[in-house]
Amino acid sequence: MAATGSAKIPEALKSPRDGNMLTGKQEHYLKRELIAQQVKFEITELNSPTALQRFGAPFKSDFGEVSPLDSDLPILRYIFVHHVREFPFLDKAKEKEFWQDKLQVFLQSFANKHISSSEDRLEETKRRKLSIKAQKLVELMMVSGIPTASGYEERIRFSELEVVDAGAIDHGVLSTIPEGHYNNGWDVNVAGVRTVMVKRNIRYHKHAEFILRVKRKGELEFFIGRRYGDFHRLHKRLRTELPGKVLPPMPRKNKQSSTASNLLSAVKGGGDDDDGSSVSSVSTMGTMLDKSMNNLTVKDHRRNGSAVSLGRSSPRPSTEGRERPSIDSESVTLFRENQRISLRAFLRTLLSNAQIANTRAISEFLSFEPITPADADVEDISRRKAMDEKRVEEQKRFYEIARKRAAELDVYMEQFRRDIIESNGLTMLFAEIKDKPTIQDLSMQYQKFAEWLRIEVAATIYHLFLAEDNSPELFAQAKKIHSMIPYTIIKNAIRIANPAAVMSSILDIFLAQPFGARSLMQRIFSLTLNDGIRSFQKSIDSLVTKIDEPVFCEKLKKFSDAEEEIKNEIRLDSETEDVDLLIAILRSESITPALNSSQIGKIYNAWVAWNSAVDNVDEEMKQGAQLFSYLKQLLKLYTRQRDKSMMLSMIEEPVTLQLLRDLFTIFYEPLVRVYKSANVYNSVTDFAVFIDDMIQVVEKCREQDVSADPNQTVQAFIDLCQRHEHNFYKFVHEVHTHDNGLFTQLMGWIEGILEFLRQGPKAGKLDINALMAGAVSVGQLDKEKAITEIDSLIAWQEARKKWHSDKTRQKMAAEGGGVGSGIETVPGAMTFQSTDFGLDQMDLQEVNYDEDEESSDEGEEEDELDPIEAERRRRARKQDHLRRSAGEPVKPHVVEVERLRESFLSMLRMVLAE
User: Which residues are CB-contacts of 459 (< 8 A; sequence separation ≥ 6)?
Assistant: First the structure.
């Protein structure tokens, strides 16, 4: 393939084959466009209260059951019938009693209430993003799963778009390197720690000051000094500047110092003067290291006494039992080292978010009052930089050793991969787990898979609790949570109680309706919702008083309660005339009373002042815009109050409680029966013992010097997993043995989806060439125009893929990464590819195209702001989106292709009719 541009197409594929009207590429992209249009229609149509009546089985219509050949939603009907209704548990639900009389009635009632309308921008944004994601996933499934009849289907290829695996070694250590790691233009390292004396009243007090090395792209680096309290104040400032933004927690104050040996030689440049490397890889298939965890102590891994330590040139037998040379002369105490690392992790996590990195608080924190380090500071920075480099080297060697051990299992893993992707691979795996009580009884390839998994879990635990800058914080949190969980009480509760009976009785208490009265659950929900409604009413009353225009308020109230047709008519008028929705509502004749001339003038003046206040930070303008600001808030409150009223009426409907009880019966009771018969309560103790053991292993490894032998570290974590793997296997085996076929059903369900993606529906294939030929023969389609439109769609897809590829590369270059550096991999990861499961890699990448990058927490933050400030941010985000999407290829408008929709729909129904 060429390095750039599209992949070269064989000459035979540049023109249609065997008398076909279309090339393989034209065939694929015409199919894709027609499927995309149909998927968009079906997802949008789900909002209609009558959608399920036109859906087909298992739902009913006024004219009886709709045939698959008459369904208005053939794609969603196929997915529902084959992949939703067949899901284990749901396959036991009765068609009339559950699907028609309860779920259909509930969903139609919900659709009729039009909850969360588009006046509430936060809710509308969430719904829109969810709808777009659903469209893309369904489109991906159908495009990948339904083949064309010719067999010549072909996609665009770009060699430079292939995912480049940066490797776990480079990716795993990138966030811990001392310098050269840019986050949104900032390269920041907490480089050193010094002691400063601060006078309080009479006495001087000693404090730690952290020296930060700061560098921006294209500028010289400089140093600043910050105390722990400064980091805390930064955290508080960010909360003020970005209210509602989810921030990483502030690291706890940690006054511990660390001791490291052999740093002096590293600082002086003598750490790597030997030729050989002593790191050896010991096969997990052969003899393991002789050292057990009991020998994994600090003294056994000092540099002069290790069998194979980092940085030594000549491997030699262990010096255990010999007199060890003194190492005190090379020991260095690093003041507040753990705190330095945790604060660096905290800062880099903040800077990895573009919105936070561009705040004024961050800019001032990282640039205010630069300092010139003293000689002692320079020496401390050098020592800590050497310490960081040794940590990075240790991580690299850990991953290298783990990868080598995993690589020895590659032959078995490739066979395992082939078994899994072949027909019934998952079913065969779980059938063997069910039949064999221990790992040792499994066939050789499954034993090797268990061995590979052991290495993977070991590497993950190491990465979480030892390798990262924030590992000390995470480990401390894990220990605290573990100490709080009452494992014995949980075990006995599961062992003695009958959870199914208990839950059923509790459900009866909550859902029972004595003498037709409201149930306890209805009362609880009603109480909560009514509190919300009353709270909204208080805010509404306050705003109505401030607005002091009863006609304005009345029209907004009537709009929020109006029929959806009237609302849509007013929304369309707002878009067509390019006016704010408030203006469209207040001037509309569909909602009485009409405004008089002075009121019209007043609202238009308020709108002008509003736009001026949004565009200019001017307090005088802001006062003039206050009326419009209040009206916007009032409309939002009316909308949300109506939503809560609609939710309250949903709770009051009998079908809601019946549906809750049925869902509980369908899902909860079978699981509880399985767990009860499988003695799952024993696994609670097994899990507690595993966590205890893991904490001990991590603590022993944390006590090591950085010069500790990575072979021993690798082995320590692998041994940990090996000591407990039989308990995990026993848990899976026991559950599977007593599951009444549940696991088998679940694997069959997953394999049914994979079978569709690989082979397509059983009823046939889409004959796109016949579709075109038929439309041309009856004069429905102009062949030349249609092919021109299809070629323009292909060119657009090609340009679009190239544009996204270039944007991705630019972003990675700006952030100091490379292509593929965002790919998280682990040592020895199996080479599963999307094509193994019937999904084309290029199609898979497109799922992430065109997504609005506005995060939900930004939306929630905007929701709490002053309306004028919220509008400023919304417009700024819109401008930013336009800037980021500048140059993105625009999809061509197609007319002739649209003429194929009806005949394509008929063909699609036949293919999906099974």
Answer: 168, 398, 399, 402, 717, 826, 827
380 in Cβ contact with 193 (< 8 Å): yes
- What is the Cα Rg of the chain in Å? 33
Q: State how far the alpha carbon of 773 is from the alpha carbons of 20, 149, 376, 777, 903, in Å.
A: 9, 14, 83, 6, 11
3-state secondary structure at position 406:
helix
Q: Which two tokens stand for residue 767?
A: 């004959």
Rounded distance between C-alpha atoms, residue 284 and residue 286, angstroms: 6
Q: Which residue has the tokens 């009409």?
A: 594
Those residues with Cβ within 8 angstroms of residue 305's Cβ, 6 or more apart along the chain or in another chain: 299, 319, 320, 322, 324
Residues 6+ apart with CB under 8 A from 296: 700, 701, 704, 712, 716
Nearest 10 degrees: Cα torsion 304, 306, 312, 317: 110
- Per-residue pLDDT reduced to its tens digit, 149-205: 888 888 776 543 333 333 333 444 445 566 667 778 888 888 888 888 877 777 777
HSE-up of residue 825 (Cα within 13 Å, Cβ side): 22
Return the closest-CA partner of residue 399 out of 826, 829, 832: 826
Which parts of the chain have pLDDT scores under 70?
1-19, 116-127, 157-180, 243-244, 258-331, 402, 405-411, 414, 421-423, 469, 494, 497-504, 506, 617-624, 669, 671-679, 704-710, 808-866, 880-885
CA 740 distance to own-chain centroid: 33
Instruction: Give which of 899, 753, 718 is closest to 838, Cα–Cα.
Output: 753
CA pair distance 375, 456, nearest whole angstrom: 45
Joined together, the tokens standing for residue 327 give 């190492």
DSSP character at residue 518: P
- Residue 565: is it exposed, middle or buried by C-beta count within 10 angstroms (0-12/13-18/19+)? exposed
For residue 49, is the peptide bond before it cis, meaning its omega torsion is within 30 degrees of 0? no
What's the CA gap between 251 and 347, in Å, rounded? 10
Burial class (CB in 10 A: 0-12, 13-18, 19+), 376: exposed
SS3 percent helix, strand, coil of the chain, rounded to 5, is: 65, 5, 30
> Measuring CA to CA, how many Å separate 666 from each of 87, 299, 522, 662?
11, 58, 22, 6
Report which residue type is found at 715.
Q
- CA dist list (Å): 44 to 1, 190, 509: 40, 51, 39
Q: Could you tell me which residues come within 8 angstroms of residue 290 by beta carbon, excluding any fewer than 6 positions away?
A: none
Half-sphere exposure of 582 (CA within 13 A, CB side): 23
Residue type (1 letter), 423: S
Nearest to 278 by CA among 253, 246, 310, 302: 310
Give the HSE-up count for residue 310: Cα atoms under 13 Å, Cβ half-sphere.
27
Place of tokens 């400063």: 196
Contact present, 549 and 675 (Cβ < 8 Å): no
CA distance 652 to 645: 11
User: Which residues lie below 8 Å from residue 433, measured CB to CB, with a gap of 6+?
Assistant: 442, 729, 732, 733, 736
Q: Is 614 exposed, middle or buried (0-12, 13-18, 19+ CB in 10 A)?
A: buried
Place of tokens 């026993």: 730
Residue showing tokens 């919900």: 110
What six digits make up the tokens of 624? 């003039």
